[in-house]
Design a protein that fits this description.
heterodimer, A: mainly alpha, Cytochrome Bc1 Complex, Chain A, domain 1, two-stranded antiparallel ribbon, 7 helices, 54% helix, disordered C terminus, B: alpha+beta, 2 domains, 6-stranded mixed β-sheet
């Protein structure tokens, strides 16, 4: 993952939504619906929390269970295709959809068993000395442009 | 000089640890507020369709669950997971919208639709931004009422189920559960966990349509809406979307009989470093007057981290990492069981320790202090369970499915604290007799056979 709180970091949040989050995501549509390699593809940023409550090096990750008869290369090929699609360009419409999804997910993070908001405030205070950051998260995602996202996928390798 | 340095260092260390000690004293917790049930609006449409709307919280999202009272329970013996196949096919699209369209539409609302199938119910659900409540209601109704069952997706979805089956069958915990519930429920669907590959291969679109047609309809369905949403437009959407649904079949769960047996079943897992133990028996159901005392007793015995069994075989003996006990509720029948993965060579000893803890609790009421700790835990968990829209829906669905009324929820905290130490011991005597329990072990059979005497000794622990 790019460094926390940079424009690239927020762009990665939206790329995660486009690639992997939800049944409309590129990887769900290709690996599950299209190719039938698997029944579900899981993953994202920070398996032990969310994209806001970590501080340090982090990976974007995806995992799935597939039949032994399928070669891993076939799966990686689909991932390459999905990334290549993003490299071709992300429309404003797609970005807007990703922003709706990430906003909804952010609300879920805040709700989180009644303590999500407390967790985020504590993290922003501890990591950034700025708990008020919680109020500007949404705005940071809206700053991401198609051009900024376009630069991202090649960084994955 | 040296002494001065040593003394100075000692002072600094003392001062530091003092500081540390001061930092570590947390402020006293506040007094817990009284629990109050959020208001709900219940409506029944002329076709028998029910709905419950609950305004809750300030996060601008709404959770919508459609419950249909059918599931694996309505499968014939050669139809295991036909309900699951029906569920995944329903998700594939309606007569007017394919999967890609549905998923993109609901993504635009900030969520997705899931279809979950369990023994007793189908759940079609989603959680979206508040303003999209009517939109999601319409899409959920379309999926429930007008599934397309596209034949083009059948083979792929059957393959998915076969993969799921293969993975689950490798897990000793799943193998133990399958055997355990087979022993207790015999020929009832509750005792059938896994299909065969051949069974899955045999399912056709017609079989799925048949299952759907026989089991779905308004009379068996309830829609729960919880969170922040505009009530008027939600009610309008419910009325418009679900009124046209056929009334369909009555709620009809085939009654289950439970087998009480202290049989010991062993499933071989050669060279297994751990034995998965599943030990339990039929128990009282949620509408029994002693159900809350049962839950408190379960919590104290094995159902919480500080429980007797866990403290013994995990903390004290180190035989296991994640033991737990729980109550499984199905329609009209319940089962209590303890499950633990223990080091193979200590299987017999683990069982003896569990038997000892049960006997101790039968003979000796817990202290007021220990019991109060458990009661606080139960009461606290209950409040937490009611502090999210999906938690609230879960509670309302629970009382609906178990024929309880609101008093189960409104009196729960009071009832938890009303349990006395003597009651806990009495409950243990009445409902947790080790010698009556069914035992399933998945582990190295050669090793377990050598320990047979230890298993039998556990039964006669005094």
């Amino acid at each position: 993952m790019p460094e926390r709180n940079t424009p690239e970091y927020y762009a990665m949040g939206l790329i995660d939504q486009l690639l992997l989050q939800g049944q409309d995501s590129k990887l769900y549509q290709s690996l599950v619906q299209g190719k039938g390699y698997t029944g579900n593809v899981n993953g994202g940023i920070n398996y032990l929390g969310n994209m806001y409550n970590y501080n340090g090096p982090m990976v974007w990750m995806a995992d799935l269970i597939y039949d032994a008869s399928i070669s891993p290369d076939s799966i990686v090929h689909q991932v390459d295709q999905a990334v290549a699609d993003l490299e071709k360009g992300v429309s404003q419409e797609d970005l807007d959809l990703a922003i709706v999804k990430i906003r909804s997910q952010f609300y879920d993070n805040l709700a989180g068993l009644g303590i999500g908001r407390a967790d985020l405030l504590a993290c922003f205070a501890l990591f950034d000395d700025d708990p008020a950051r919680i109020n500007s998260i949404e705005a940071e995602f809206r700053k991401v442009t198609p051009e900024l996202t376009f630069g991202q996928p090649t960084e994955l390798y | 000089m040296k002494n001065k340095i040593l003394f100075g260092t000692a002072l600094i260390i003392l001062a530091w640890s003092n500081l540390e000690a001061q930092k570590q004293i947390a402020p006293a917790g506040g007094t817990p507020k009284d629990f109050s049930l959020p208001e709900k609006k219940i409506t029944t449409l002329p076709n028998g369709f029910g709905s419950a709307l609950v305004q809750y919280g300030d996060i601008p999202k709404v959770t919508i669950n459609l419950i249909i009272k059918t599931g694996n329970v309505h499968e014939a013996a050669n139809e295991v997971w036909l309900a699951d196949l029906t569920g995944v096919l329903m998700k594939e699209g309606t007569t007017t919208m394919d999967f890609k369209t549905i998923s993109r539409k609901v993504a635009g609302m900030g969520g997705e639709v899931n279809v979950n199938v369990s023994a007793d119910q189908f759940t079609i659900s989603g959680s979206v931004l508040s303003e999209f409540a009517p939109g999601l209601i319409k899409i959920i109704s379309d999926i429930a009422m007008n599934p397309a069952f596209p034949p083009s997706e059948l083979e792929r979805l059957k393959k998915d189920l076969k993969r799921q089956l293969a993975v689950e069958k490798t897990r000793p915990q799943s193998q133990a559960q399958e055997k355990f519930f087979q022993l207790i429920y015999k020929d009832h669907p509750y005792g059938r966990f896994f299909p065969t590959d051949e069974m899955l291969s045999s399912y056709t679109i017609d079989k799925v349509k048949d299952f759907y047609g026989k089991n779905f309809g308004a009379k068996r369905s309830v829609l729960y809406v919880a969170g922040k949403f505009d009530a008027a437009s939600a009610e309008k959407a419910i009325d418009e979307s679900f009124s046209p649904w056929k009334a369909g079949p009555e709620i009809n769960y085939p009654p289950a009989t439970q087998v009480r047996t202290n049989e010991i079943a062993t499933i071989d897992r050669k060279n297994a470093p751990q034995t998965t133990i599943l030990l339990g028996l039929p128990t009282i159901t949620p509408n029994h007057p002693d159900y809350v005392p049962l839950q408190v007793t379960n919590s104290l015995l094995g159902g919480s981290f500080g429980s007797r069994i866990t403290t013994n075989i995990r903390e004290d003996k180190g035989y296991t990492y994640s033991p737990f006990s729980t109550i499984q509720n199905r329609k009209g029948v319940s089962v209590w069981y303890e499950q633990a993965d223990v080091t193979s060579e200590h299987t017999g000893e683990s069982l003896q320790e569990i038997a000892k803890e049960i006997r101790r609790l039968q003979n000796e009421p817990p202290s007021k202090e220990e019991l109060t700790g458990i009661q606080r835990y139960q009461a606290g968990i209950f409040v937490l369970q009611n502090s999210t829209p999906s938690g609230i829906i879960g509670q309302l669905n629970f009382i609906d499915q178990n024929g309880l009324d609101d008093t189960y929820l409104t009196n729960r905290v009071k009832n938890i604290y009303a349990v006395t130490p003597e009651k806990v011991s009495q409950m243990t005597k009445d409902h947790f007799k080790y010698e009556d329990m069914t035992l399933v072990m998945v582990g190295d059979k050669k090793l377990l056979d050598k320990q047979k005497q230890l298993h039998e000794k556990a039964r006669s622990v005094k």
